[in-house]
C-alpha cells in the first residue's frame, strides 16, 4: 500500500478563511447592496412621500437620482451573479 | 444498477427542493407549484453546467480497486432508504451524506476498514459538514441584520415586494448550485460502477448519457417536490419574511459556490439549514425553534452511520444469498420498503395545498388548518 502524497491537513485554514470572507462579501454584501438599491428607488421628491399614504406600498418613488443610484446597485448585483454563473460554467 | 442510481438521484432532487425553494414558498414570493417547477428546470441546467465534482466523490473516499458492482448497489440502496425515511419525518438531512454513508457501509461490509480512506473522509466530508452550517449561518445573520437596518424606513409593503424579487433570484441561484453539485454525485457513482464493470477506463469522466439521465432524474425529483421537507425548512425553523428569505438564499448560494470552488462539495442541506437559522438569529424579535433545529442536527449526526448500516445490511444480504439472486432480493426489498414509506406518507399527506399551514409542532399540519392555506 503506497502512502498518500503528503497527507492533507484536517482543516484547511487558508481555504476556510477565504470561504468566510468571500462568503460574507457575496452572501451578505450583495443582499445589503440590493437593499440599498431598494431604498434608493423608494426615495421620492420630498413631500409627496409623506402625503401619499395610498401608495405607501409602491416600490418606486419619484426621485431621478434615487432611480439612477438604484440602477447602479442592481447592476452591480446582477454583474456579481453573472460572474458567479460564469465561474461555475468555466469550472474554475 | 443504473436504475437504482437514478432512483437515488430522484430522491435526492425530491428531498432537496426545500433547500432552494422553502423560503420562497413560505413567504409566498412564488406559488408552490411554480417554485418547484422553476427549481427543477434550474437543476437540469445546473447539472449540465459543471462537471468538476463528479470524479472526487467516487475515487477519493474508498479504494476503487476493492469495490464491486454489488457494493455500489448496496450503498445506493442504503442511501435511498435513509433519504425516504427522513423525508417521511420531514427532516432535511443531507442526501450527499446518505450516499457517502451507504457506499462506505457496503464497502466496509465487503472489504473491511482498510478499503476506506478515513483521513479523506474526515478532511473532505465530516469536518466541512460541521463547519458549513456555522459559516452559512453567520453570513445569513449578518446579511439579515444589514438588510433590516438599511430598509427599516421602507413601508412593509414596499419592502416585501422588492425583496420577493431578490428572493426569487437568489433562490434560483441555489437551485442552480444544487444541480451543479448534487446531480454530479450520482454521475460519479454511475461512473464508478462503469469503471468497476470495465465499461470505461478508470480515468474516464462521465459519458454523456449518464449526464443526461442524471440531470433529468434530479430535476423530475425536484419537480415532484419534497413538500414535507419544504414545510419544515420554511415554516418549522423560523417564521420567515421576504428580506430574511433573500438573505438566507444569498448566503447559501455564496457559501456553496465558493466552497465548491475550493473543491469541497458541501451538503446543500446543511448550508441551507444553517442559513435559515442564521436569518432567524439576525432579525430582532424572530423566534427560532431550536428544538426543531436540534432534531435536525441529531439526524445529521445519524445520517452517515445509519446509511452505512443500511448499506452494509444490503450488502450482507446480497452476498449471503449470492450472485444476481442476492441483488434481486435486495431490489425487491428496497421497493417494498419504499412502497411502505410512501403508503405511510399518504396517511397524512403534505402537498402544495397545505405546505404553508400554521406550524403546530410537527410536520403534519392539523387537518382543519389545511384548507385556508391553499392560496
Characterization of the model:
- The complex is a heterodimer of chains A (92) and B (375).
- Chain A has 92 residues and is mainly alpha-helical.
- Chain A contains 3 helices and no strands.
- Chain A has helices at residues 13-42, 47-51, 64-89.
- The longest helix of chain A is centred in the first third of the chain and has 30 residues, at 13-42.
- Chain A is elongated, with a radius of gyration of 22 Å.
- Chain B is mainly α.
- The longest helix of chain B is centred in the middle third of the chain and has 42 residues, at 156-197.
- The N and C termini of chain B lie far apart (41 Å).
- The relative contact order of chain B is 0.20.
- The chains are: A mainly alpha (92), B mainly alpha (375).
- Chains A and B meet through helix 1 and helix 3 of A and helix 6, helix 7 and helix 10 of B.
What layout of secondary structure does this protein have?
The complex is a heterodimer of chains A (92) and B (375).
Chain A lengths: L12 H30 L4 H5 L12 H26 L3
Helix pairs in contact in A: 1-3
Chain B lengths: L1 H25 L5 H18 L4 H6 L9 H21 L5 H17 L6 H33 L5 H42 L10 H17 L2 H10 L5 H20 L6 H15 L7 H32 L1 H25 L19 H7 L2
Helix pairs in contact in B: 1-2, 1-4, 1-7, 1-8, 1-9, 1-11, 2-7, 2-8, 4-5, 4-12, 4-13, 5-12, 6-10, 6-11, 7-8, 7-10, 10-11, 12-13
Write a compact overview of the structure shown.
With 92 residues, chain A is mainly alpha-helical. Helix content of chain A is 66%, strand content 0%. Chain A has helices at 13-42, 47-51, 64-89.
**Distance linking N and C termini of chain A:** 32 Å
* Helix-strand makeup class of chain A: mainly alpha
Question: What share of the residues of chain B lie within helices?
Answer: over 70%
Using the CA coordinates, give the radius of gyration of chain A.
Answer: 22 Å
How much strand content do the residues of chain B show? under 5%
| Rg on CA atoms of chain B, Å | 20 Å
- Biggest beta sheet attributes of chain B: none
Amino acid at each position: 500500500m503506497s502512502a498518500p502524497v503528503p497527507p492533507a491537513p484536517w482543516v484547511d485554514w487558508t481555504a476556510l478563511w477565504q470561504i468566510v470572507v468571500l462568503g460574507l462579501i457575496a452572501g451578505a454584501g450583495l443582499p445589503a447592496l440590493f437593499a440599498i438599491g431598494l431604498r434608493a428607488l423608494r426615495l421620492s421628491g420630498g413631500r409627496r412621500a409623506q402625503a401619499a399614504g395610498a401608495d405607501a406600498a409602491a416600490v418606486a418613488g419619484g426621485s431621478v437620482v434615487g432611480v439612477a443610484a438604484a440602477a447602479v446597485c442592481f447592476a452591480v448585483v446582477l454583474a456579481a451573479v453573472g460572474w458567479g454563473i460564469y465561474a461555475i460554467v468555466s469550472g474554475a | 444498477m443504473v436504475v437504482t442510481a437514478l432512483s437515488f438521484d430522484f430522491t435526492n432532487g425530491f428531498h432537496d427542493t426545500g433547500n432552494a425553494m422553502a423560503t420562497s414558498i413560505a413567504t409566498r414570493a412564488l406559488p408552490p407549484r411554480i417554485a418547484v417547477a422553476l427549481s427543477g428546470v434550474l437543476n437540469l441546467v445546473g447539472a449540465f453546467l459543471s462537471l468538476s465534482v463528479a470524479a472526487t466523490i467516487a475515487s477519493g473516499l474508498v479504494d476503487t480497486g476493492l469495490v464491486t458492482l454489488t457494493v455500489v448497489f448496496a450503498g445506493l440502496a442504503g442511501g435511498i432508504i435513509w433519504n425516504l425515511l427522513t423525508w417521511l419525518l420531514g427532516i432535511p438531512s443531507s442526501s450527499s451524506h446518505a450516499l457517502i454513508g451507504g457506499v462506505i457501509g457496503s464497502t466496509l461490509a465487503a472489504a473491511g476498514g482498510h478499503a476506506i480512506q478515513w483521513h479523506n473522509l474526515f478532511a473532505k466530508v465530516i469536518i466541512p459538514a460541521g463547519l458549513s452550517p456555522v459559516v452559512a449561518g453567520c453570513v445569513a445573520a449578518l446579511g439579515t441584520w444589514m438588510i433590516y437596518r438599511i430598509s427599516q424606513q421602507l413601508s412593509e409593503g414596499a419592502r416585501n415586494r422588492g425583496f420577493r424579487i431578490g428572493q426569487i433570484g437568489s433562490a434560483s441561484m441555489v437551485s442552480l448550485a444544487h444541480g451543479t453539485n448534487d446531480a454530479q454525485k450520482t454521475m460519479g457513482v454511475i461512473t464508478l460502477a462503469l469503471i468497476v464493470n470495465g465499461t470505461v477506463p478508470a480515468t474516464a469522466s462521465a459519458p454523456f448519457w449518464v449526464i443526461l439521465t442524471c440531470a433529468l432524474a434530479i430535476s423530475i425529483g425536484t419537480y415532484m417536490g419534497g413538500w414535507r421537507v419544504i414545510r419544515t425548512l420554511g415554516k418549522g425553523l423560523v417564521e420567515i419574511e421576504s428580506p430574511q428569505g433573500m438573505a438566507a438564499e444569498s448566503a447559501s448560494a455564496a457559501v456553496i459556490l465558493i466552497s465548491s470552488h475550493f473543491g469541497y462539495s458541501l451538503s446543500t442541506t446543511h448550508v441551507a439549514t444553517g442559513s435559515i437559522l442564521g436569518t432567524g438569529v439576525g432579525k430582532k424579535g424572530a423566534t427560532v425553534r431550536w428544538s426543531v433545529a436540534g432534531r435536525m442536527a441529531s439526524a445529521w449526526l445519524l445520517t452517515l452511520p445509519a446509511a452505512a448500516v443500511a448499506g452494509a445490511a444490503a450488502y450482507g444480504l446480497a452476498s449471503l444469498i449470492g450472485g444476481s439472486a442476492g441483488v434481486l432480493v435486495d431490489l425487491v426489498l428496497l421497493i417494498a420498503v419504499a412502497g411502505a414509506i410512501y403508503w405511510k406518507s399518504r396517511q397524512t399527506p403534505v402537498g402544495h395545498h397545505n405546505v404553508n399551514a400554521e406550524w403546530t409542532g410537527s410536520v403534519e399540519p392539523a387537518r382543519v388548518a389545511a384548507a385556508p392555506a391553499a392560496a
